[in-house]
């Protein structure tokens, strides 16, 4: 007797979202009813040499995937694990646009306690751990850039790749990042838009910010500033239209350093030219002249950073296609600026909900169950994904002192204590969801199936 046909799942993209989904499904024993293929456009799986932070909400999901021990091996011994239950300091946020000890007649330093703490990793470490946990039954196809797909009357989805390869699936999952081609196609078909109209809405918008990403050897910083706070603690130095974040990664051997520069008059426009460029830090130092000594030291030792234009996806009213056979996750659904350090965290949360829904909802092997599972995913994730994206967009403004009480201030200018307190409170409010568990959302989703 032949075994029943499995539901064919194609995951497009193997960034943090796509790979975590492969891990999530690997752990849920879906082999009997799902056949999973991952298609990635690049010829190698690489990750930018930069850091990534995780907060209790995302960390709990990584624990549920059984990744805690493997990830903990990539952490330095003094890094504490995040926890929803304990109050721990995370970012030390301070006005950075002043010299130490000068201009200070109000408390310009707010040691913001973000409950639960965070952990930081090198992106390559996270990718390595994820790859170790993907089941060998999941097939990975590199150099496969999806360029189009068609849904046939019987529900099959035909996939077209740039290399000429064609494939078919029953469920298509878009983990293809902020410039998702699948998002554009769904928008065009759902709204009956022309390709041009869809491209316009699907194209991410510029937030008005750029950032420079680089890692610096901790020993280099230690040799000139043994007490530099970024050696041991995540630091955020903020000023008008600029801020810089720095935190230790790779067991404290590197300092992930990311200065941001914003021009909010450009917010909501489209980026012209490449989003990412190799750059130099020469002009960068001039942008932070007169800033805190710790900022100057970091900028002096940055070399060959990559320059990123920070974009955001226009809020999507739904993360699924009309048929329910195509599902968006991660940046493809809700790409947003990185100020909350939670873009990957939100992709991981999409995966948490989606993998459990698929494991429970498709166990029957019936194709008809796919659209029901997709609707449940959409109902749970679309409101939260859009909420988190709006929060991180707002946080960018606060960190650039584009906030009440700071309207007219210039670098190094004092502001009333009340404005500082209000700023600290608003920052903490925007972050507060990141230390609350996503379990209730999963329970709600599973109850809806
Ligand atoms: C400066 C900066 C700092 C950040 N810091 C943090 C942080 O501390 N914590 C955090 O949680 N998040 C952070 N983020 C956000 C995080 O990096 C993203 O949200 C996350 O990587 C999104 O994952 P993803 O899998 O959805 O997309 P991506 O990681 O972009 O992966 C998409 C994948 O799809 C592939 N692909 C694209 N198109 C196709 C196609 N047509 N066919 C096949 N494959 C395709 C790409 O090659 C890529 O591998 C930061 C982002 C930036 C810019």
Kindly report the spatial arrangement of strands forming the biggest sheet: 5-4-13-14-15-12-17-16
The major beta sheet can be summarized as: 8 strands, mixed
* Proportion in β-strands: 15-25%
CATH architectural category of the domain at 7-44 and 124-203 and 317-399: 3-Layer(bba) Sandwich
Count of helical regions: 14
Q: What is the CATH top level name of the domain at 7-44 and 124-203 and 317-399? A: Alpha Beta
Report the structural category: alpha/beta
Structure, described:
Keywords: FAD, Flavoprotein, Oxidoreductase. The protein is of the alpha/beta class and about 450 residues long. It has a domain at about 5-45 and about 125-205 and about 315-400: FAD/NAD(P)-binding domain. Helices cover about 35% and strands about 20% of the residues. The chain has an eight-stranded mixed beta sheet, sandwiched between helices. Strands 7-2-1-11-18 form a five-stranded parallel beta sheet, sandwiched between helices. The two termini are about 30 Å apart. The model is unreliable at about 100-110 (pLDDT under 50). The structure holds flavin-adenine dinucleotide. Flavin-adenine dinucleotide binds near residues 16 and 40.
What is the compact description of this entry?
The chain is built from 14 helices and 18 strands. With 449 residues, it is α/β, with parallel strands linked by helices.
List the keywords.
449 residues; five-stranded parallel β-sheet; flavoprotein; eight-stranded mixed β-sheet; alpha/beta; FAD/NAD(P)-binding domain; 21% strand; binds flavin-adenine dinucleotide; FAD-bd; single chain; FAD/NAD-bd_sf; oxidoreductase; 14 helices; 35% helix; FAD-binding domain-containing protein; 18 strands
């Amino acid at each position: 007797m032949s075994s029943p046909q499995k539901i064919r799942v194609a995951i497009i993209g193997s960034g943090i979202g796509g790979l975590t989904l492969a891990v999530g499904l690997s752990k849920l024993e879906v082999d009997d009813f799902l056949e999973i293929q991952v298609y990635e456009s690049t010829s190698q799986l690489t990750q930018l040499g930069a850091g990534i932070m995780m907060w209790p909400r995302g960390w709990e999901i990584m624990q549920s995937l059984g990744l805690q021990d493997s990830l903990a091996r990539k952490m330095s011994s003094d890094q504490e694990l995040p926890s929803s239950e304990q109050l721990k300091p995370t970012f030390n946020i301070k006005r950075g646009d002043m010299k130490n000890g000068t201009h200070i007649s109000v408390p310009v330093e707010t040691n913001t306690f973000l409950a639960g703490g965070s952990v930081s990793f090198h992106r390559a470490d996270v990718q390595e751990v994820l790859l170790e946990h993907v089941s060998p039954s999941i097939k990975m196809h590199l150099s496969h850039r999806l360029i189009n797909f068609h849904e046939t009357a019987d529900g099959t989805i035909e996939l077209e790749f740039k290399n000429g390869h064609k494939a078919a699936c029953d469920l298509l999952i878009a983990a293809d990042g902020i410039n998702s081609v699948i998002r554009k196609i769904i928008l065009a078909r759902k709204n009956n838009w022309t390709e041009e109209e869809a491209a316009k809405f699907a194209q991410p918008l510029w937030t008005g910010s750029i950032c420079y990403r680089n890692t610096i050897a901790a020993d280099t910083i230690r040799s000139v500033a043994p007490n530099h706070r970024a050696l041991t603690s995540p630091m955020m130095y903020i000023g008008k239209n600029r801020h810089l974040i720095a935190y230790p990664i790779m067991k404290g051997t590197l300092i992930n350093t990311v200065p941001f520069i914003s021009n909010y008059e450009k917010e909501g426009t489209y980026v012209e030219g490449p989003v990412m460029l190799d750059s130099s830090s020469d002009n960068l130092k001039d942008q932070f002249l007169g800033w805190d000594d710790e900022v100057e030291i970091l900028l002096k030792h940055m070399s060959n950073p990559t320059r990123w234009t920070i974009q955001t996806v226009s809020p999507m009213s739904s993360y699924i296609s009309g048929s329910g056979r195509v599902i968006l996750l991660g940046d493809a659904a809700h790409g947003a600026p990185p100020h909350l350090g939670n873009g990957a965290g939100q992709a991981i949360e999409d995966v948490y909900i989606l993998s459990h829904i698929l494991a429970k909802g498709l166990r029957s092997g019936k194709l008809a169950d796919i659209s029901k599972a997709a609707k449940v995913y959409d109902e749970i994730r679309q409101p939260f994904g859009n909420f988190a994206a709006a929060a991180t967009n707002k946080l960018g403004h606060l960190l650039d002192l584009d906030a009440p009480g700071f309207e007219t201030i210039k670098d190094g200018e004092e502001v009333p204590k009340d404005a500082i307190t209000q700023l600290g409170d608003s920052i903490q409010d925007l972050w507060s969801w990141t230390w609350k568990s996503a379990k209730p959302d999963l329970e709600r989703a599973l109850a809806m199936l």
